[in-house]
Amino acid sequence: MRKDVMEQDSIKEKNYKVISFKEIKAKPINWLFQDFLAYGKITMVQGDPGSGKTSLALKLASEFSNGITPYGEKLKKPIKTLLLLSEDDWEDTIRPKLNKMGARVGNVLSFKLDRENDFTPLTDERIEEIIKDEKIGLLIVDPIQAFLPDNVDMNKMSDVRPVMSHLINMANRNHCAVLILQHLNKNVQVKNVYRGSGSLDFNASARIVLTIMKPLKEVSKSISRNLRYAQITKSNIGHDNQCLFFRLDDDKVIDWVMKEELSEHELMLFQPNTAISKKEEVMNYLKKKLAEGELPAGDLIKQITQELGVSIDTVNIVKRSIGVKSTKRGANWYWYI
């Protein structure tokens, strides 16, 4: 090797630092609302149109603005919420709801741009400026699809991941909880955690996923036909199967009904029978992931076996049955439809 090349390599600065986990100090999750919302983390709320997603978000903001949780527990101080909304009018919809829900409206904020046709994607630095300046404790995005940059395809993991990573880092830097709302797709044959619109990476990035549903039958005479419940269908940091029960009146205003952690038998009273075989779960997973384009086979197999708890043989059987094709480039195999 030439001497000048060796010297150049020797003086090249490293742009990384190797860290031993011995240097990392363990700390507990800092909850805004136990099991449902944590500072520095993303919670995803998904549900059908009209299920009460926005009303639930506004009710949570109202409670926090008064320094309490939905269960009446006192917070250390009232929390400020920043609303990013695209579907409801501030004057005739949002403010009346906040009034009826008892919000301390001075602690619920949004912002207007200088020009009406201006657009604010989640990556806009002005959002973080407001979070810092106003000491925001909760950011609500309703819905996530309305605040994606123009060049982002919501169905592509490679497009969605950088946006979600930016949001996670921003939440961590500013000690802010994030609540994201998204619609469900129409595929009722898969688990609820896979029913969010767009790329699976939305829900993969969230540490907690809540799904709003209606009960199939009333569990007591005191519960009206307007009952809803938001069930934790995924949690990487808290307890699964926790539910928030609420009643949604004709004005889309929420009243809490009860707090319970339901057993598997009790949950059957509220959930439709969407039980499907493991092979069907793998089939749905493969179709959704590969709809985003060609993916490395090894990474995909690892994801499926870990997330769905199936064997590699099962994955390969399903792969052949639905006509997934393979191609090899270099040392790696890729799958595509």
Q: What structural keywords apply?
A:
3-stranded antiparallel β-sheet; globular; 9-stranded mixed β-sheet; about 325 residues; single chain; alpha/beta
Brief synopsis:
The chain has helices spanning 3-11, 53-65, 90-100, 125-134, 157-174, 201-205, 264-267, 278-290, 297-308, 312-321; strands at 31-33, 37-38, 42-47, 81-85, 108-109, 138-142, 177-183, 208-213, 227-235, 242-248, 254-261, 295-296, 325-329, 332-336. It has 337 residues and is of the alpha/beta class. Helix 8 crosses helix 10 (312-321).
Compile the SSE list and pairings:
Elements: H1 3-11, E1 31-33, E2 37-38, E3 42-47, H2 53-65, E4 81-85, H3 90-100, E5 108-109, H4 125-134, E6 138-142, H5 157-174, E7 177-183, H6 201-205, E8 208-213, E9 227-235, E10 242-248, E11 254-261, H7 264-267, H8 278-290, E12 295-296, H9 297-308, H10 312-321, E13 325-329, E14 332-336
Parallel strand pairs: 3-7, 3-8, 4-5, 4-6, 6-7
Antiparallel strand pairs: 1-2, 8-9, 9-10, 10-11, 12-14, 13-14
Helix pairs in contact: 8-10
Provide a descriptive summary of the structure in words.
- The structure is a single chain.
- The chain has 337 residues and is α/β, with parallel strands linked by helices.
- 31% of the residues lie in helices and 21% in strands.
- The chain has helices at residues 3-11, 53-65, 90-100, 125-134, 157-174, 201-205, 264-267, 278-290, 297-308, 312-321; strands at residues 31-33, 37-38, 42-47, 81-85, 108-109, 138-142, 177-183, 208-213, 227-235, 242-248, 254-261, 295-296, 325-329, 332-336.
- The strands form three sheets. The chain has a nine-stranded mixed beta sheet with strand order 5-4-6-7-3-8-9-10-11. It has a three-stranded antiparallel beta sheet with strand order 12-14-13.
- Helix 8 crosses helix 10.
- The longest helix has 18 residues, at 157-174.
- It is globular, with a radius of gyration of 23 Å.
- The chain starts with a helix and ends with a strand.
- Residues 218-223 and 272-276 have low confidence and may be disordered.
